[in-house]
Specification:
Blueprint (H helix, E strand, L loop, with lengths): L1 H23 L7 H12 L3 E9 L2 E12 L3 E14 L4 E15 L14 E10 L1 E5 L2 E17 L2 E2 L5 E12 L2 E13 L2 E11 L2 E10 L4 E10 L2 E3 L11 E15 L3 E16 L5 E8 L1 E4 L2 E3 L2 E7 L4 E9 L2 E10 L4 E10 L2 E4 L9 E16 L6 E16 L2 E4 L5 E11 L2 E12 L3 E11 L2 E10 L5 E12 L1 H7 L5 E14 L7 E13 L4 H10 L6 E3 L1 H8 L4 E13 L2 E3 L3 E4 L4 E9 L3 E9 L5 E9 L4 E6 L26 H11 L2
InterPro entries: AsmA-related
Protein name: AsmA-like C-terminal domain-containing protein
Length: 678
């Protein structure tokens, strides 16, 4: 009996060992084809597997290699360890599910239909190693993610956003214009929201550290206690969120941020956002403050500055203060995009050196300037069509607006006051000036304008209508103006110099000379005119015979005048203006040897009807000169009227006869000189 028992025990052990050896070399791939065929037929999975490792001694453990699910999922390895499998109760519990080297294309993913006995699936721990996911233009690479206590299937329905704990790392998250790298995170999925207690990542060459909540169903992304550091933002390349997505920041700090976009460039930004909520179709609701080393907005260049932001869906409010254009500034601004309107509530400038570029333009068609106060400001124009520079300017402006290319008042307080040390336009320089003006609904009124200009003094006041035909009136007074810079400005054919005084009172429509009315007087001293040899020309004409009226070719007369220069010791052109015609009765020019008197009218439309006379020391005219027709095509006639004895003075004005002039009758004196000095 003892031998039999011993034999039976040895036999059982041998059988057990043989069974274990047989099961150990069992090839699960032999079952792969019928099992996959049954699954694909009943579950419509379109599943293929390259290799299976399965041991019946461990029936709840399976390793599949080269797994392919349709054209949207593939994995190098899938490891499954069942904790509980109860087909009759429709409950399946997976202790561990590991997916290694997998690729998932969500754009192509479809519903996974499973048999009814797989109605409920719970996974104790899901782990991915080197998972890649693509969706539209987004790609996630190198995801190592762990989900715990996850139930993706309940009552035959997939619930991918079911509650679970989550942690992991992500090597890279990219979009054509967006990239995050070296991401680590931990948190949970609850109430169909991804709630990450902390996410850390590289973002735009910098760092991001924040708590994140993503609600895909409500299309909302929220960052809380976010910290951005050394990020380099390319705003024109940010991914476009859908029109229904909402992005929210709760308490965000920024450190050494840079922004680059077609409109705005800024560096060295440090600050804090108390909150921000943005949705496409409007401005963000936001409040915060910042400081930056510099900012460039199109032509506007700011240096080191601070700012505060207060924004609603309809209006953006900014407070800015700091350095700009080698000076300082302080401003309160608001932008209303629905009306394309920029309100400058307050702008203070001090010691700024501004540059005017020919391509400058206002980005807003409607600008409202409520208050501007500038002190000791400089302006330099680089526009060849505007050769202007201003030094030491002080400007005060209130309640002015510009829209549709016109200035208009915002209230009855709309006014401008300015003073300057120097204003240069081309070769004309005005110094130590001051002006006051106000604007109402109908006209611009210059209450006062005084300045030192052309080495003399100028004062002016007047008003002009804001609308065509721009009717206005002007009172002008100037003393001791040096006219030489006017030649350099006009770049005319004849150089000139000298001193003149101006006094005028003019009214009418600016562009309609026929409406001009008023008075104008120009007096001058020591006026030099190049290539206008007045003395030699008059002497030659007095020596000729013009007892009968003769027409003279103006071109020949101009050629004769070009043979010398004119020196006008004194001049006076004065008279009333009526319907755009300046009446010059009583006017005269005193040259070195002659006195030339003028009568008639000068039409500002470009014509003249003048009588000129070479006057002797008795005030009588001995050579009559008539200028008619237009300025560009004049008609000239000469005549030597017969003098009575005694003669009747033709000129009784204030300009005296020249001290070097010929005594007695001019014609006789000239002819006598010519005979003495042939």
């Amino acid at each position: 009996m003892k031998k039999l028992a011993k034999f039976l025990l040895v036999l059982v052990l041998v059988l057990l060992l043989a069974g274990w050896l047989l099961l150990s070399v069992f090839d699960a791939n032999q079952l792969k084809k019928p099992v996959l065929g049954w699954l694909n037929e009943h579950a419509e999975l379109d599943l293929t597997v390259g290799n299976l490792e399965f041991n019946p001694l461990h029936p709840y453990t399976l390793l599949a290699e080269d797994v392919q699910l349709g054209d949207w999922f593939s994995a190098g390895q899938v490891y499954v360890q069942l904790a509980h499998f109860s087909p009759l109760s429709n409950n399946t519990r997976i202790a561990a599910l590991d997916v290694i080297d997998a690729q998932l294309q969500l754009d192509k993913a479809g519903d996974i239909a499973l048999p009814s006995n797989l109605a409920n699936i719970r996974i104790d721990e899901f782990t991915s190693k080197n998972l890649s996911v693509s969706w539209q233009d987004w790609q996630a690479k190198g995801a190592d993610v762990t989900l715990t206590n996850w139930q993706p299937r309940l009552d035959s329905h997939w619930q991918w956003w079911s509650d679970t704990q989550i942690k992991g790392q992500l090597r890279q998250l990219t979009h054509p214009h967006f990239a995050m790298a070296q991401m680590s995170f931990h948190g949970q999925v609850a109430d169909q929201q991804l709630q990450l207690a902390r996410i850390q990542s590289r973002l735009f060459d910098g760092l991001l550290d924040a708590a994140l909540t993503l609600d895909a169903q409500q299309q909302a992304l929220t960052l809380t206690d976010a910290s951005f550091s050394r990020n380099r933002l390319q705003l024109e390349q940010l991914p476009l969120w859908g029109s229904h997505w909402r992005v929210q920041l709760n308490r965000a700090t920024f450190s050494d941020i840079s922004i680059t976009s077609p409109q705005l460039t800024s560096n060295g930004i440090n600050g804090e956002l108390r909150y921000l909520e943005w949705q496409a179709g409007g401005l963000p609701e936001a409040r915060g403050h910042w400081q930056a080393d510099e900012a460039v907005l199109d032509w506007l260049r700011l240096g080191k500055h601070q700012g505060e932001l207060l924004s609603s869906r309809n209006k953006l409010g900014l407070s800015l203060t700091g350095q700009a254009y080698e000076g300082t500034f302080n401003s309160e601004l608001s932008w209303t995009p629905a009306q394309a309107r920029l309100d400058i509530d307050s702008l203070q400038l001090a010691d700024n050196k501004l540059i005017w570029q020919p391509e400058l333009y206002w980005p807003s068609p409607d600008v409202r300037l409520h208050k501007l106060n500038a002190s000791q400001v400089e302006l330099l124009s680089l526009d060849a069509e505007l050769p202007l520079s201003i030094l030491g300017a002080n400007v005060f402006v209130t309640d002015l607006a510009r829209s549709a290319g016109q200035w208009r008042p915002l209230s009855e307080q709309a006014r401008l006051e300015a003073s300057w040390n120097e204003v240069a336009f081309n070769s004309i320089v005005a110094r130590h000036g001051h002006t006051k003006a106000r604007l109402d609904d109908t006209q611009l009124t210059v209450e006062q304008l005084t300045t030192e200009i052309l080495e003399g003094k100028l004062s002016m006041q007047g008003e002009i209508s804001r609308y065509a035909p721009y009717v206005g009136q002007l009172q002008l007074a100037a003393q001791a103006l040096d006219i030489r810079p006017l030649y350099r400005w006009q770049q005319g054919e004849h150089e000139f110099s000298g001193m003149i005084d101006l006094n005028g009172n003019l009214q009418g429509a600016l562009a309609q000379t026929e409406t001009w009315q008023g008075q104008l007087a120009i007096t001058g001293q020591d006026v030099f005119i190049e290539k206008v040899g007045l003395d030699s020309w008059l002497k030659a004409r007095l020596a000729e015979d013009y007892r009968q009226v003769r027409q003279v070719d103006p071109a020949l007369a101009a050629l004769d005048l070009n043979q010398g220069d004119a020196f006008i010791y004194q001049m006076q052109l004065a008279g009333p203006i009526n319907q755009g015609r300046w009446q010059l009765d009583g006017s005269a020019l005193q040259s070195v040897r002659h006195l030339l008197a003028l009568r008639g009218q000068l039409d500002f439309a470009g014509a003249w009807q003048l009588e000129l006379g070479a006057i002797n020391d008795s005030g009588c005219r001995e050579l009559a000169i008539a200028l008619t027709k237009t300025w560009r095509a004049p008609q000239l006639s000469l005549h030597q009227p017969k003098l009575a004895t005694p003669c009747t003075p033709w000129y009784r004005g204030d300009i005296p006869y020249p001290k070097a002039g010929l005594s007695g009758p001019l014609i006789d004196a000239v002819r006598k000189l010519n005979s003495t000095h042939p």
